[in-house]
Amino acid sequence: MVSSELIFGAAFFFQCAIGFVGNSLLFMLYVFISFKKPQQKKPMDLILAHLTLANMVTLFTRGIPEIMFCFGMRHFLDDLGCKALMYIYRVSRGVSVCTTSLLSMFQALIISPYNSVWASIKVGAPKYILHYFLFFWITNALIYIRVIEATEARKNYTVSTYGYISHIYIVRVKENDSQFTLPFTLGIIFHDLIFHFLMGLSSTRMVFLLYRHRKQVQHIYSSSYSAKTFPEVKATQTILLLVTCFVLFYWLNNSIILYQIFTLAKDAQYDTIASFFCVCFPALCPLLLIGSENRIPKPHCVPGETQRSHKAFRDG
Question: Scanning 10, 163, 196, 222, which has its CA 20 to 30 A from the CA of 108?
């Protein structure tokens, strides 16, 4: 009978392979368009390129170690390596939260009518995208610096004094270590909740704009040509699906980690399941984006109707 470790190892391998190939292709596409076809460049490209980089770092720091463990490689990192791995993983995951939130808010601005109150923000927002990225990296690097001190290489420790047990490392949470258990945990929760709240607001607005757009165009086009095929509508639906997948996998992963922290019976096997959910979004994200990328040639395009829908959707 095939062991569960081999099954998970194969699953992680396919996740990482699909994720690395998909994210790499998307990143090269955005770079190619930026330098070779600047007339096709969109402000959203920079955000998507940044998200693909964060995805690849997450795959490298979370998926690759799981593959190595599941296929029999034990204790392959020393204490310094575990600290660096955990820190980079947590920072990249935090940056992914921020970038996904920015992507959602930016798309909500893009599809907003030019005569709305968001018109001035819509024009000036692309100028500050790089500033947002710098802010994301600095804040996450500062928030998770405590992880370096709390992480140790996993050995034959008594787990009663440790809050989180992984295949590769353990996170030290002693009973009298209130500096870790209260401010650090609350800071992470508050940070993530802010960006998830912004995702929720922007997603709600996008749903409202999509619903209004559908009402406006349903009397123009026949039922045989669905409005969901229009580029702006399709791109918005893709962003909404990305946000939904991100939130779903994020909280599934977090729920398992919280269970590990607060349960008395520590079981490192839960870390495999948590890691699987953590790697799901970086692996699926490029597939969703490639499917909605209208600069990749696709058949059955109807230019005239697409242009009329574009004007109706943007003018509100």
Answer: 222
